[in-house]
Design brief:
Blueprint: E1 3-9, H1 12-23, E2 26-28, E3 32-34, E4 42-46, E5 57-61, H2 66-78, E6 82-83, E7 95-98, E8 104-107, E9 120-127, H3 130-141, E10 144-149, E11 152-156, E12 164-169, E13 178-182
Parallel strand pairs: 1-4, 5-8, 9-12
Antiparallel strand pairs: 1-13, 2-3, 3-4, 5-9, 6-7, 7-8, 10-11, 11-12
Length: 183
Protein backbone atom coordinates (compact mmCIF):
# COMPACT_ATOMS: atom_id res chain seq x y z
CA UNK A 1 0.00 0.00 0.00
CA UNK A 2 1.47 3.41 -0.96
CA UNK A 3 2.20 6.25 1.41
CA UNK A 4 0.86 9.77 0.89
CA UNK A 5 1.85 12.71 3.07
CA UNK A 6 -0.94 15.21 3.54
CA UNK A 7 -0.63 18.87 4.49
CA UNK A 8 -3.51 21.05 5.60
CA UNK A 9 -2.98 24.39 3.87
CA UNK A 10 -4.56 27.81 3.77
CA UNK A 11 -3.93 27.88 0.00
CA UNK A 12 -3.59 24.21 -1.12
CA UNK A 13 -3.04 24.80 -4.84
CA UNK A 14 -0.44 27.49 -4.23
CA UNK A 15 1.45 25.39 -1.64
CA UNK A 16 1.39 22.40 -4.00
CA UNK A 17 2.96 24.51 -6.75
CA UNK A 18 5.56 25.81 -4.27
CA UNK A 19 6.62 22.28 -3.23
CA UNK A 20 6.60 21.08 -6.85
CA UNK A 21 8.99 23.90 -7.75
CA UNK A 22 11.25 23.25 -4.75
CA UNK A 23 11.45 19.47 -5.28
CA UNK A 24 11.32 19.47 -9.07
CA UNK A 25 8.18 17.33 -8.97
CA UNK A 26 4.87 17.53 -10.87
CA UNK A 27 1.53 18.92 -9.71
CA UNK A 28 -1.24 16.41 -10.37
CA UNK A 29 -4.85 17.56 -10.18
CA UNK A 30 -5.36 20.72 -8.17
CA UNK A 31 -3.18 20.13 -5.14
CA UNK A 32 -1.11 16.95 -5.20
CA UNK A 33 2.59 16.79 -5.97
CA UNK A 34 4.18 13.59 -7.25
CA UNK A 35 7.78 12.64 -7.90
CA UNK A 36 8.95 11.50 -11.32
CA UNK A 37 11.26 9.02 -9.57
CA UNK A 38 11.59 7.82 -5.99
CA UNK A 39 9.47 9.64 -3.44
CA UNK A 40 6.04 9.82 -1.90
CA UNK A 41 3.19 12.03 -3.12
CA UNK A 42 2.39 15.16 -1.14
CA UNK A 43 -1.28 16.12 -0.96
CA UNK A 44 -2.55 19.54 0.10
CA UNK A 45 -6.05 19.95 1.51
CA UNK A 46 -7.89 23.02 2.82
CA UNK A 47 -7.09 23.80 6.46
CA UNK A 48 -9.96 24.25 8.86
CA UNK A 49 -7.90 26.75 10.87
CA UNK A 50 -4.53 28.51 10.62
CA UNK A 51 -1.39 26.65 11.70
CA UNK A 52 -0.45 27.70 15.23
CA UNK A 53 1.89 24.96 16.48
CA UNK A 54 4.80 22.84 15.34
CA UNK A 55 3.78 19.86 13.21
CA UNK A 56 4.26 16.34 14.53
CA UNK A 57 5.33 15.29 11.03
CA UNK A 58 7.96 16.99 8.89
CA UNK A 59 10.02 16.39 5.76
CA UNK A 60 13.80 15.92 5.66
CA UNK A 61 15.36 17.00 2.37
CA UNK A 62 18.50 15.27 1.10
CA UNK A 63 21.71 16.94 0.00
CA UNK A 64 24.58 15.32 -1.87
CA UNK A 65 27.37 17.53 -0.49
CA UNK A 66 27.84 20.42 1.92
CA UNK A 67 27.82 22.77 -1.07
CA UNK A 68 24.56 21.19 -2.26
CA UNK A 69 23.08 21.64 1.24
CA UNK A 70 23.99 25.35 1.16
CA UNK A 71 22.56 25.71 -2.35
CA UNK A 72 19.31 24.00 -1.31
CA UNK A 73 18.95 26.24 1.75
CA UNK A 74 19.49 29.31 -0.44
CA UNK A 75 16.99 28.04 -3.02
CA UNK A 76 14.36 27.41 -0.35
CA UNK A 77 15.00 30.84 1.20
CA UNK A 78 14.73 32.53 -2.21
CA UNK A 79 11.39 30.75 -2.72
CA UNK A 80 10.01 32.13 0.56
CA UNK A 81 11.01 29.51 3.15
CA UNK A 82 12.34 30.86 6.43
CA UNK A 83 14.69 29.58 9.10
CA UNK A 84 12.86 28.00 12.03
CA UNK A 85 13.66 27.35 15.66
CA UNK A 86 12.08 24.17 16.99
CA UNK A 87 14.39 23.94 19.97
CA UNK A 88 17.28 22.38 18.06
CA UNK A 89 20.84 22.83 19.25
CA UNK A 90 22.96 25.31 17.36
CA UNK A 91 25.44 22.47 16.87
CA UNK A 92 23.27 20.30 14.57
CA UNK A 93 24.60 19.73 11.05
CA UNK A 94 21.16 20.12 9.42
CA UNK A 95 19.24 23.34 8.78
CA UNK A 96 15.70 23.74 10.12
CA UNK A 97 13.37 25.81 7.96
CA UNK A 98 9.65 26.32 7.42
CA UNK A 99 7.85 26.46 4.10
CA UNK A 100 5.74 29.45 3.08
CA UNK A 101 2.83 28.31 5.28
CA UNK A 102 5.05 27.52 8.27
CA UNK A 103 5.39 23.74 7.89
CA UNK A 104 8.73 22.69 9.35
CA UNK A 105 11.36 20.89 7.26
CA UNK A 106 15.02 20.01 7.60
CA UNK A 107 17.74 20.30 4.99
CA UNK A 108 20.10 17.50 5.93
CA UNK A 109 23.84 17.44 5.58
CA UNK A 110 25.06 14.69 3.20
CA UNK A 111 24.39 11.19 4.58
CA UNK A 112 25.19 8.00 2.68
CA UNK A 113 22.12 6.26 4.13
CA UNK A 114 19.89 8.57 2.05
CA UNK A 115 21.73 8.08 -1.25
CA UNK A 116 18.77 6.49 -3.08
CA UNK A 117 15.85 8.44 -1.66
CA UNK A 118 15.50 11.18 -4.24
CA UNK A 119 15.22 14.77 -2.98
CA UNK A 120 13.06 13.71 -0.04
CA UNK A 121 15.27 11.79 2.43
CA UNK A 122 12.66 11.02 5.06
CA UNK A 123 9.19 11.66 6.38
CA UNK A 124 9.72 12.12 10.12
CA UNK A 125 6.95 11.50 12.66
CA UNK A 126 7.11 12.50 16.32
CA UNK A 127 5.29 10.06 18.58
CA UNK A 128 5.24 8.85 22.17
CA UNK A 129 6.12 5.29 21.06
CA UNK A 130 8.32 5.18 17.94
CA UNK A 131 8.74 1.40 17.91
CA UNK A 132 5.02 0.69 18.19
CA UNK A 133 4.20 3.22 15.47
CA UNK A 134 6.94 1.85 13.21
CA UNK A 135 5.64 -1.71 13.55
CA UNK A 136 2.07 -0.62 12.79
CA UNK A 137 3.09 1.39 9.72
CA UNK A 138 5.45 -1.37 8.52
CA UNK A 139 2.53 -3.77 8.50
CA UNK A 140 0.16 -1.24 6.91
CA UNK A 141 2.57 -0.24 4.13
CA UNK A 142 4.51 -3.51 3.78
CA UNK A 143 7.74 -1.60 4.53
CA UNK A 144 10.85 -3.07 6.11
CA UNK A 145 11.94 -2.02 9.60
CA UNK A 146 15.58 -1.05 9.10
CA UNK A 147 16.39 0.48 12.50
CA UNK A 148 14.82 0.22 15.91
CA UNK A 149 16.66 1.49 18.95
CA UNK A 150 15.91 3.62 21.96
CA UNK A 151 13.77 6.52 20.90
CA UNK A 152 14.01 5.99 17.14
CA UNK A 153 12.65 3.61 14.53
CA UNK A 154 13.00 3.70 10.76
CA UNK A 155 11.18 2.04 7.86
CA UNK A 156 12.13 1.67 4.23
CA UNK A 157 10.17 0.60 1.15
CA UNK A 158 11.15 -2.97 0.19
CA UNK A 159 12.45 -1.67 -3.17
CA UNK A 160 15.18 0.25 -1.32
CA UNK A 161 14.21 3.44 -3.15
CA UNK A 162 12.33 6.47 -1.95
CA UNK A 163 12.29 8.19 1.41
CA UNK A 164 12.52 6.55 4.79
CA UNK A 165 9.61 6.77 7.20
CA UNK A 166 11.18 7.63 10.56
CA UNK A 167 9.68 7.84 14.03
CA UNK A 168 11.19 9.94 16.82
CA UNK A 169 10.22 9.92 20.48
CA UNK A 170 8.44 12.96 21.84
CA UNK A 171 6.44 12.81 25.08
CA UNK A 172 4.17 15.56 23.84
CA UNK A 173 3.86 15.39 20.07
CA UNK A 174 2.47 18.65 18.75
CA UNK A 175 -0.83 18.36 16.97
CA UNK A 176 0.10 19.17 13.41
CA UNK A 177 -1.42 19.65 10.04
CA UNK A 178 0.91 17.28 8.23
CA UNK A 179 -0.12 13.63 8.35
CA UNK A 180 1.11 10.43 6.71
CA UNK A 181 -1.88 8.69 5.16
CA UNK A 182 -2.31 5.39 3.41
CA UNK A 183 -4.77 5.21 0.57
Amino acid sequence: MPLVVEFAAQEPEWLARWWAEVLGWTVVGEAEVRPDGPGVPLRFVPASEPKTRQNDVHLDLRSESHGDQTHLVERLFNHGARFADIGQSTEVPWVVMADVEGNELCVLEPRKVYAYTGPLAAVVVETTDPREQARAWAEELDYDIVAEHGEFASLRPPTGEGPYLEFLHNEEPHPGMLRPLSH
